[in-house]
Every structure is written in structure tokens, then in C-alpha cells.
TrEMBL record:
Compartment annotation: Cell inner membrane
GO BP field: C4-dicarboxylate transport
The name this protein goes by in its record: TRAP transporter small permease protein
Domain of life: Bacteria
Keyword Transport applies: yes
Boundaries of every Tripartite ATP-independent periplasmic transporters DctQ component domain copy: 43-172
Keywords from the UniProt entry: Cell inner membrane, Cell membrane, Membrane, Transmembrane, Transmembrane helix, Transport
Family membership noted in the UniProt record: Belongs to the TRAP transporter small permease family.
One function term, GO molecular function aspect: transmembrane transporter activity
Biological function: Part of the tripartite ATP-independent periplasmic (TRAP) transport system.
Topology relative to the membrane: Multi-pass membrane protein
Amino acid sequence: MTQRAEQSGGSRLYAATRHINRFLDSLTDILAFVGMSALIGAIGIVVVDIIWRRIGGQSLVGAVDLTQFCVMAAASWAIPYAFSAHAHVTVDLIGKNRFRSVLKFVDALIPLLCAGLMAFLLYLSWGRAMEQLSYGDVSQNLAIPMILFWGFLLSGMAISTLVCLGQFMKLLLKDENN
């Protein structure tokens, strides 16, 4: 066994899983930062459009296309970050102290179920994206290829799936090492 694997409390697989999870956490941090920067850009475009309407009496050409593009990036790349940071909303209806053993099992399955859901949505979205690509659809004003919009969504779902699988593997291997 390597020294890192021994320090991590066990197997090489657990150490590799921790390493992959750290990489995915860093990746989701970067994507969230880029996505939120895009959202700030969308806000800036809307503000410029409003000012231009007041001053010039007409709308900014392509403002809607650019805003949609930026919002798509922000929303699609924030989803993997939410999974990575465990920032999703949870509701405690039963009482975690009384049913801790049952809820521990459910908590371990949640990343696997989320990975399955995201993989299913990725599968469905991939088909629609390929349809858009084959039709050559573009945005209304600036003729931005619609596949670029789909690229944000598909990449966000793919990374979300990997993050959830990584979290499940970490939980699974953590229980084996304890």
C-alpha cells in the first residue's frame, strides 16, 4: 500500500476516490464562479439595454440572446456545485435523532439516486440536443448555434452525475474502512 493510502485510512480505492472528489470539487468551484460571472454579465446586458432604450429609443440588438446564453451557463453550471457543496435543501420531517440508523442508509442512497436522475436527464437531453444540432437551429437575433446553449446544460448534467457518483463511492468506501 502507498503511504497516502495508509494515511487516508485504508485502501487505494478510497484514496483514489478522495482524490477524484477533490478534483471534482475544484472543477465545480471554477464552473460556479464562471457561471455566476456569466449571470453578472447577463445583469449588465439588461442594464445596458434599459439605458440604451432610454437614451437611444431602441433596444440593444441581441440582448435577449446574450442574456439567455449567460443565464443558461449560470444555471447549468451551478447545479454541479450545489451537489458538490451539499447545498441542496433538506427537510427534517421525521426527526434525525430517533431514526438515525434508517436515515443514515437513506443519506447514503441519495447521491446514487441523484446520479441516476442526472444520468437519465442527460440521456434525454442528449437526444434533444442532437436533434437541435442536426436541424442547425440558431438563436433569433445573433444566430448563436443552439447547440452551445445545450452544451452548458449537458456539461452541467454530466459533471453533476460524476459528482454524485463520487460522493456515493466515498460514502460506500468510508463505511468499509470504518
